[in-house]
Fold this protein.
Amino acid sequence: MLKPVYVFSGFLDSGKTTAIKNTLYDPRFNQGESTLIICIEQGDEEYDKKFLKATTSDVVYLDSFMDLTIDKQKELDKQYDPDRIFVEFNGMEDDNVFYQNGFIQNWELAQTLTTCDASKFQLHMQNMRQFMYNHMVNAEVAILNRADDVDKRYLRNNLKSINQYLEIIFEDKDGNVSNKIEDELFDVSHDLYIEDVDYGLWYMDQLDNPRKYNGKTVTIKVKKLDEIEGYPDVAIVGRRAMVCCANDIADIALPCEGVEKYRLKEDQYYLITAKISIAVDQQGYERCVLTATDILEAENIENDLVTFN
């Protein structure tokens, strides 16, 4: 049986070491199993002897994940024989290289997590957007710490635009989980008309709360972005958002049924009124699906790219 590997990424001092320590101190996760921590970045927080003994762990230090070759994995396995492996990345290395080139060969990748100082999120997005994107797009779980005085909705929406399947955990400065996002957007007691500037907010809200919109009617201004082969009455409609840099534009879109008679043209905006229903996607998540009841040609939107403010 292959041994599980848990990868922790994130910028320097974003809380990777603290997250690893908290996980290994947690009796729900650690019941005496041995853990090998492979540390590729050393921050202010250290793995001291007391912690290693208490959690039945060992630590080794590497200069780069490029050093984690198949021979190195076999060598570490023979030397430590751990039940599982934690890898702490250097936040300024390209995560994509690690995942795309299949560095984990002697073991099995179990989970990928990334940490972020929520108070520095906007700064990182402005100055190190590509690295932030690489961390988030490859992660299954994002731990946003120091989130006491930040706009959680803004952070959540931006992260979900990068990776819609990302599980986001907000922590306050004391390490307590504080995932509640205040205020209720979009009143579903009546038919919804989504303003152009609110499309990004609405898209993320329906992504997180599909049942809230089940059976409701919505009017949105969107383009036809794609088709589904073999289904002429279905189109992928929505808008586009810059999730990383100018070269990384993602579709922020939904499937829409009942479009065949309208003969939608690309690069043309349409005002679509549709009934919302729920379907399960290939990942097993509930998603909103539109069924058009009316489609009209519409004027272009001045700022074509979606924002999440």
The first strand starts at residue 4 and ends at 9. The chain is about 25% helix and 30% strand.
